[in-house]
Specification:
CATH class: Alpha Beta
Strand content: 5-15%
CATH architecture: Alpha-Beta Barrel
Strand order of the largest sheet: 3-4-5-6-7-8-9-10
Number of helices: 12
Structural class: alpha/beta
Shape: globular
């Protein structure tokens, strides 16, 4: 695989990034099989691995640490912090107190002395971004982290991070990790243009829309909930399922599986550095690797645009970040007593 520049970090990464959320008890519990997947990806030219401390409740980082023995220098290794890592309310979040503990835990589990890309997993409205950037700046200066980034930040917070770095003399966020697929194109409106403006590299997650663009969830078929404790709403969205059928037909007409069309679409965008693949089995990985060289013609991209207009989400994923103002009615409604006291008209 040819490599691409990860923003302006000077780091070169493959257009496919190996995501590891499926490694461990929540996906593939066989550590040796997970190691085979990692090694096969590296042998195929994938040099970028993304994980998080919360994946598998820390088990995933341990799997990666064992698998990378003897191959660490060949890998750009990324992990994330912020998720809930225990009952203690301070074992989570983006405070300096937790970051300094979380990074040491990840280094130990990954069996490395530095992390190439350390990312804020989710926005943290209750913590000043300056607090977070200050701690991450110290980690960069210590050598434990080589670059810092974010995941799921709205465009406004990406801009705020750049402003804070300039005004306070702190390190800049160099990457962003948003969701992006044929069915989820909202980041084309603001997030990707903002990343372009500031030279921020992007590694997009769920380019297969949680399996919808792998043909795993089809109209008229019962949703495979055997592996899921709950069935996300977007997997049963009728409009999304209708579009999946049309996209499968479009891919078939173009002579390729839907997975190859979906991945090629994601990496085709000029502002996407790398698309995260999340295979659970070696067969899943082999299918995705087989389509690594696929390039979509303009005419085919035009037909995709006609089905899913640029900048739109067909079915917003349940696990995607939603700002507090959209989740909490109290932030968009005046108190009832105040409304009742307001003069009519």
């Amino acid at each position: 695989m040819r490599t691409r520049a990860l923003g302006r970090t000077g780091i070169q990464v493959s257009p496919y990034c190996l995501g590891t959320m499926m490694f461990g008890k929540l996906g593939n519990p066989d550590h040796e099989d997970c190691a085979r997947i990692i090694h096969r990806a590296l042998d195929a030219g994938v040099n970028f691995i993304d994980t998080a401390d919360v994946y598998g409740y820390s088990e995933t980082e341990e799997i990666i640490g064992k698998a990378l023995k003897g191959r660490r220098d060949d890998v750009v290794l990324a992990t994330k912090f912020n998720g809930v890592m225990g009952q203690d309310p301070n074992r989570r979040g983006s405070s300096r107190r937790w970051i300094m503990t979380a990074v040491e835990d990840s280094l130990r589990r990954l069996r490395v002395d530095h992390i190439d890309l350390y990312q804020i997993h989710h926005p943290e409205p209750g913590t000043d971004l300056e607090e977070t950037l200050s701690a991450l700046t110290d980690l960069l200066r210590s050598g434990k982290v080589r670059a810092i980034g974010s995941s799921n930040l709205p465009a406004s917070e990406i801009v705020e991070g750049q402003w804070l770095a300039e005004r306070r003399g702190l390190a800049r966020l160099r990457t962003e990790q948003p969701t992006y697929s044929v069915l989820n194109r909202a980041i084309e409106r603001e997030v990707l243009p903002v990343c372009r403006r500031y030279g921020i590299g992007t590694l997009v997650w769920s380019p297969l829309a949680s399996g919808m663009l792998a043909g795993r969830y089809r109209k008229g078929r019962p949703t495979d909930s055997r592996r899921l404790k709950w069935v996300p709403k977007y997997l049963t969205d009728e409009r999304a399922l209708d579009l999946v059928e049309r996209l499968i037909a479009l891919a078939r007409e173009a002579g390729m599986p839907i997975t190859h069309l979906a991945m090629a679409f994601a990496v085709n965008h000029p502002d996407v550095t790398s698309a995260i693949i999340g295979p659970r089995t070696l067969a899943h990985l082999e299918d995705l690797l087989a389509g690594a060289g696929v390039v979509l013609e303009d005419a085919l991209l035009d037909r995709i645009d006609a089905l899913v207009p640029p900048g739109t989400d067909v079915a917003t994923m349940d696990i995607a970040y939603r700002p507090p103002a959209l989740r909490d009615p109290a932030l968009r409604r005046r108190p009832a007593a105040e409304r009742a006291a307001a003069p009519a008209g």
